[in-house]
Amino acid sequence: MHCRLMLPPPSPALFSIQFILKLLKISADSTWLRFGKTIHTQLLIRNQISNHTDITQLNSLINLYVKCDQLHIARKLFDEMPVRNVVSWNALMAGYLHTGEHLEVLMLFKNLVSLENACPNEYIFSTVLSCCSDSGRIQEGKQCHGYLLKCGLVFHQYVKSALVHMYSRCFHVDLAMQVLDTVSGHDVFSYNSVLSALVESGRSKEGLQVLTRLLDERVVWDSVTYVSVMSLCGQIRDLQLGLGIHAQLLKGGFIFDVFVSSTLIDMYGKCGKAFDAMKVFDGLQKRNVVVWTALMTAYLQNGHFEETLNIFTRMDREDTMPNEYTFAVMLNACAGMATLGRGDLLHAQVEKLGFKNHIIVRNALINMYSKCGSIDSSHDVFTDMINRDVITWNAMICGYSHHGLGKQALLVFHDMISAGQCPNYVTFIGVLSACAHLALVQEGFYYLNQLMKKFKIEPGLEHYTCIVALLCRAGLLAEAENFMKITPVKWDVVAWRTLLNACHVHRNYGLGKRIAESVLEMDPHDVGTYTLLSNMHAKARRWDGVITIRKLMRERHIKKEPGVSWLEIRNDIHVFLSEGSNHPESIQIYDKVQQLLAMIKPLGYVPNISAVLHDVEDEQKEGYLSYHSEKLAIAYGLMKIPPPAPIRIIKNLRMCDDCHSAVKLISKITNRLISVRDANRFHHFQDGLCSCADQW
């Protein structure tokens, strides 16, 4: 800057045209507007700009003002030019492209090609194609492709790359592939464009084909190539391919590129190797928020929620400022652990740092509050949002459905349609789940057979499983079984167990036995099926059946997964195990459980010993039931959380019948809202009733 101020004013009269052009180029390249304007002024004063001025000089002035963001001056010069060449047109079009004024670019191109003897060059076509790419104007891009075929410029390297990039960015990957297949000699930029689009649209099989071509044609990779290829490896969960690419990028020295290293970390995370992702991270000399967030995402994807939160603490200690994606990951980790206190703290931090208006953060807040049992807080975040995307609507619909609030879920869905937002695959999982909670059979089939078809969404296993649950909820077990027989889908254990659980609820033991046999053929080690089958035999007082199930479990070395429940009190997580606990206040907790059970027995509570699989005396079975993990957690919550605050419990397994009956009565005698999130859904216990209406 000091050097600029010390330079004397230029005297264009003393300089040749070539030297003036050189000065204008220096001014443009360095965006030195003041110096360039001085030259322009001197040229005007000395009458060296007129209708007969050399076109190159005027083009240089246009280039100067374009690069110095003075498009209005550049446009004025352009409009006053008596004669223009392709450089004139391209300079102005490039300026409009840079500022995102796509319509101006296209209008200039339209004016150019309408001229007689117009001959746009490869640079103009590249500019127009880039404009179509950035603005998503595929029709104009196709028209440009037609011009290229007529004038033969489609084979030029700049044009080929721009054409492939345009089709890729507009997600017309098939057309991009056609250009690749019909025009030879592509550079790495073209392959990067296609590969990135294929990965982004989930077309991994074709992505692998492009990768094969990259290798066969010995194209030299750049950092963008590695990012796309690593993303592909993560998408298809191909760890071996990922390891090979990792070795290759180490040789090329690309590991130090922040985007490459973050994608490598993401690949290991998606392949289930979070600890390998940490090794990559620890080997990096420089780390920014992108790399930190990639590492947190890797741990989150593998269910390491506590470690995800710890990484965030470590990042904070190293004074790395989080971004909106970091907060989204952290809030989802809180959702996974159901730690409402930590989620509230993060929400406050989001507000303080100004990230509350980022839609990705708002969506994560809705999800966090929903999974932490505070669906009202989810609704507050949702109603406060001005802009919503399909993920926002889905989070609210699925949140209400998960809480058993089917009516509210369907109201949100109707609001979504009224707002003009198109539903997607996930939306209808939430909608059909809501129908199942409300036993709306006719409406459920309407959404499945008509509305999904209207929105061109092909139903999948999850939707069909919701229909099975819907029929079961309505007590139509035979219809549910028939639906499973006639529907051409590969049913999984979850769907069959849904029907099996309904057999347990509705005491249809004949059908239940048949379904259980089918499930155990699919998965002989599915402990949930053994438990349900044993409970059905016990309810029917078929003790020989109970003994047979227990014997079968012993022979197959199948053990019931230990029940684990936890709750959060003042940001500390308290974990309880069924039939035993090493909690420092265990004695007081056990005493509290006994007090609660004694209080609910006069209300009709009778221990359901059929829920106990242990081969012991009835009195001992009562003891096992007393210390199920959710009972311990609820007792501790009542000890430590003052009324009227709700007690929120998370459990890893389905609630057993005995605990469900007991907690309903406990909610009544304590006059407290008790929320339990088990493996299937939320149960909100209040005044002796449960939100699931005893069907779960």
UniProtKB/TrEMBL annotation:
Residues 604-696 form the DYW domain. It holds the Pfam family PPR_2. Keywords: Repeat. PPR repeats lie at residues 54-88, 187-221, 288-322, 389-423. GO terms for biological process: RNA modification. The keyword Repeat applies. It comes from the Eukaryota. InterPro entries: DYW_dom (IPR032867), E_motif (IPR046848), PPR_At4g14850-like_plant (IPR046960), PPR_rpt (IPR002885), TPR-like_helical_dom_sf (IPR011990). The keyword Repeat applies. GO terms for molecular function: RNA binding; zinc ion binding. Belongs to the PPR family. PCMP-H subfamily. This is Putative tetratricopeptide-like helical domain, DYW domain-containing protein.
